[in-house]
Amino acid sequence: MGLRPSLWASLVPRDPRQAKPNHYAEMARVAWENRDQLPYAWRILKEGVCDGCALGTSGLRDWTMDGIHLCMVRLELMRLNTAPALDPERLGDVSRLAGLSSKELRALGRLPSPMIRHRGDKGFRVASWEEAYATAAEGIRKTTPERFAVYLTSRGLLNEHYYAAQKAARALGTNHVDNSARLCHAASTVAMKRTLGHGATTCSYGDWIGTDLIVFFGSNTPNNQPVTMKYLYHARQKGTRVAIVNTYFEPGLRRYWVPSVPESALCVRASRRSSPGTSRFIGPRGIGFSHGRIWTPPPGSPTTTRS
Ligand code: SF4
Fold first, then answer.
1. Mutate which of 27, 55, 184 to test ligand 1's pocket (most atoms within 8 Å of Cβ)?
2. Which domain holds residue 169?
3. How many domains, the chain?
């Protein structure tokens, strides 16, 4: 694909006046953070699946587009997989943890074994797997399926874990299964179901490329799922227009750099001042715009556009 200077935001590659992104510096910081486990971290990247989000990867590739698939979300999470074992003594009295930030709590390390805390205990103590299973089994036996529920959560749980766990719960006689993914996505699932009739995505990122118009509603994909910007880059290269409906024009959508695409160092994603017909930021009038786009006339009424 050729260069598209009309999409460039600046003639200064990686403009230092821009606060974000600075991927190479962030990559260096992640490498430093994982310095004690670099070969293992590299093996995770090269051979593992990413547990950062549900986009789907095999090592450093995906099944949608050629080229490297890697985003900072995955690198930021790397330490959670390479961290050393936590000292179980640190959990012996949980009141000592109360003042720690979430970053400091994560830095304690990974759980080396099952741990149990009974009501009234000051904290957790190490348990064998046998004891953990026996404790859970005893609790399940003491109750009825109607009063038994399974809740799953952990950073990095995969679809396969959820699948196996809900099967096990049903085999134990209950369909009370819940997880943190539902809490995260309940709002968007309901909104999509109501507006699109389907509670999940209806297309692949690959479908973006070649579209006429992409509309982002209140979204900050550059931060939340940076790899999307690569698909957006290729869509823009093919002439896609982008509209952003938000009360705030996210800096990452105004200007973004995809590390594996050198030209994107100069490439604007979406800008109020971009060349005609490329992209549009819709601020306070977003609700009117949304109604005009989503509203569909009732059957039999004249087809008009509301805005
Ligand atoms: S977009 Fe990022 S977090 Fe999601 S699967 Fe790809 S590398 Fe992982």
1. 55
2. 148-197
3. 1
